Amino acid sequence: MSAKKPSFLVPVIGTAVIIAGGIAAYMYLKGGASSSSPLGSAKLVPATALMATYIDTNPESWNKLQQFGTPEARKLLGKEFQNFNQQMLNDSKTSYEADIKPWVGGVMIAVLPPEAKKVSQDNFRGSETPNYLLVVGIKDQLAALKFANKLKDQKNVKIQESDYKGQKIIESTGQGQPTYVTVVNNDYLLLTSSKQAVEKAIDTYKGEPSFVTKEGANDLLSKGVDVKNSLAQIYVPDYANMIQQLTAFNPQSKQLPPQTLAQIKQVKSLTAGVGIDDAGLRLKAIVNLDPQLNKFQYQATHAKIVGQFPSETLALTSGQGISKSWETFVEQSKDYPELNQGIQQARTQLKLLQIDLDKDIFGWMNGEFGLGAIQSNQGLLAKVGFGGALVLDTSDRKTAEATFTKLDNFAKQQSLNVAQRTIGGKNVTEWQIPQQGALVAHGWLNNNTAFVAIGGPVAETLANRQGAALDQSDTFKTVTGSLQKPNAGYFYLDMDKTKTIIERVSAQSQPLPADATAILDSIRGVGVTVNSPSKSLTQMEMLLSLKSSQGK
């Protein structure tokens, strides 16, 4: 549906309710009160729909957001909502809270293909955009009727009625293309910018195949994703078909090559949901895969590598088995000539250093790994405020040490000073820049754990940690503690520490806007993890950890 001024949609909805119900239905409306659901709403969506999103309008769920954020952030969000409310309703003299919220149930937004009559071999690609069908539940018909009566005299739109298979369609003309509305059985309002789309929805209501009848869709809609206080759920029963069609609709996109299509077809379906709980906003996604096509499976980790990082870590990505991931990547690259060529060039260049890319670089990285950004204001890191570190567990220390020796020799050829230091009782090799300190350092934290650090101060922090480990910090435990286990590792972000870096960088050009500061001050951090219990299933979970409005 193309962009248009929202205010003229309000009287359209009101008029639709008036026509659908009418004053004569007052007693019936007074006695009935339906409540929409993803499965119920999807029964009105044509089977041709590519995907659907269900937005839950339960005020108890949305009100839980009030328990989070700084006063400044809540004031900012309140102001934004007021602005939206005024823009939407300024011509109708109505209030969302008083006039609309009481009767609107859940809202399903379905993505439909373009109108079939306009699609051909000549103009299919780049000439059409998908249609959007809104299925709005009417949870309180009496409140809806009251709202409609308040708006029936509005003059800012032109209304024209038509009949399709006994169902009344209201066409409104205001700004932009026409909008079509119909009310089904006084329980659902259907809204779209395509007359064909609303007619297909009516056909579905009359018995034609619906979104629910698509293979696997009933199961997705019935189960959804388990999140507390669900705000929205997304359902994609045929992922590959959706990607292919949306790509074809996009005038900016190129035709997908066969190799990419093969990768996409590994995914059968996708479900995602976002909800609000005591920790913050939580997103979960479930991806169903074709086990015959899926060549990669995440490996579960014990996350012990996190304990090697200091509490000063502001961001971290951890996982297991880089060597196996590399093997899978190389195997899949054979289907992509340009990518395969890049790998071959890298292999050739490293051979000049007598380094085997597959064996000497990735072959020994067979344990847990962690890649982190660590706060530091010393030496070369003073300007940026942080450095980086890669920590790796391995069962092949001999190959790893041989690789480090070859890289040290290369550094010497580049006129870097390669020197040995003892830090915290550990031997550390540094690549030093005269009068500036160490640029890169590497060493061993124990018999099986190697590290490479960007910046000498980071190496000192790792090798001779004085404070608590990252996995013992309150922020890390709060942000990641409720994520699913077992898992394949974490992505972790400490927003307070990251905000310090952002402010330092922005100060060099212009200060961070007050609105951005208010939002960042309300976020404790971000935690993401992935789990793959089988080759046919991958689960992702993300927590946007928010600070309590009470400051706890």
Q: Could you give a short description of this structure?
A:
The protein has helices at residues 9-21, 26-31, 38-42, 59-63, 71-89, 96-100, 141-151, 195-205, 217-223, 239-249, 258-264, 322-333, 337-351, 357-363, 397-413, 456-463, 474-480, 495-506, 514-521; strands spanning 51-55, 104-112, 131-138, 158-164, 167-173, 179-184, 188-192, 230-236, 267-277, 280-289, 313-320, 368-375, 386-393, 417-423, 426-433, 437-446, 449-454, 490-494, 523-534, 537-546. With 552 residues, it is α+β, with helices and mostly antiparallel strands. Mean pLDDT is 84; it is low at 1-7, 21-34 and 117-127.
Number of distinct helices: 19
**What does the oligomeric state look like here?**
single chain
How big is the Rg? 29 Å
| Mean pLDDT reading | 84
Beta-strand content bin: 25-35%
N- to C-terminal separation? 43 Å
Shape: elongated
Q: Which structural class matches the secondary elements?
A: alpha+beta
Structural overview:
The model is unreliable at 1-7, 21-34 and 117-127 (pLDDT under 50). The protein is elongated. A hairpin with a 3-residue loop joins β6 and β7. The protein has helices at 9-21, 26-31, 38-42, 59-63, 71-89, 96-100, 141-151, 195-205, 217-223, 239-249, 258-264, 322-333, 337-351, 357-363, 397-413, 456-463, 474-480, 495-506, 514-521; strands at 51-55, 104-112, 131-138, 158-164, 167-173, 179-184, 188-192, 230-236, 267-277, 280-289, 313-320, 368-375, 386-393, 417-423, 426-433, 437-446, 449-454, 490-494, 523-534, 537-546. The chain has a 20-stranded antiparallel beta sheet, with helices on both faces. With 552 residues, the chain is an alpha+beta fold. Helices cover 34% and strands 28% of the residues. α1 packs across α7, α5 (71-89) packs across α19 and α14 crosses α15.
